[in-house]
Design goal:
5 helices; mainly alpha; single chain; Serine Threonine Protein Phosphatase 5, Tetratricopeptide repeat
Length: about 90
């Protein structure tokens, strides 16, 4: 595995763990680190959308879900989450 992809994956995994513990601000920091390594990673964009939504940050959450849908218009979860924010 490429070093950047491994770092991105580790940051993503840590973000998921923190988010599941309700530590959303820390999770966002991890997801942003992962996104810096892989800016178009759909799973990280989706996780950022969900975490922003959990924090009540509707506008940023909507933007993350839109980015997911730009890459994968069939991603139903992102479409539903975006619709719920509007």
């Amino acid at each position: 595995m490429h070093a950047a992809a491994h770092a991105s994956s580790a940051a993503y995994d840590q973000g998921l763990k923190l988010s599941s513990q309700g530590r959303h601000l820390e999770a966002i920091s991890c997801f942003e680190k992962a996104l810096a390594e892989r800016p178009d990673d759909i799973r990280t964009l989706f996780a950022l959308g969900n975490t922003a939504r959990a924090l009540g940050l509707a506008q940023p959450a909507a933007e993350f879900f839109r980015k997911v849908l730009t890459q994968d218009p069939e991603r139903l979860e992102a479409l539903v989450n975006l619709a719920n924010l509007l």
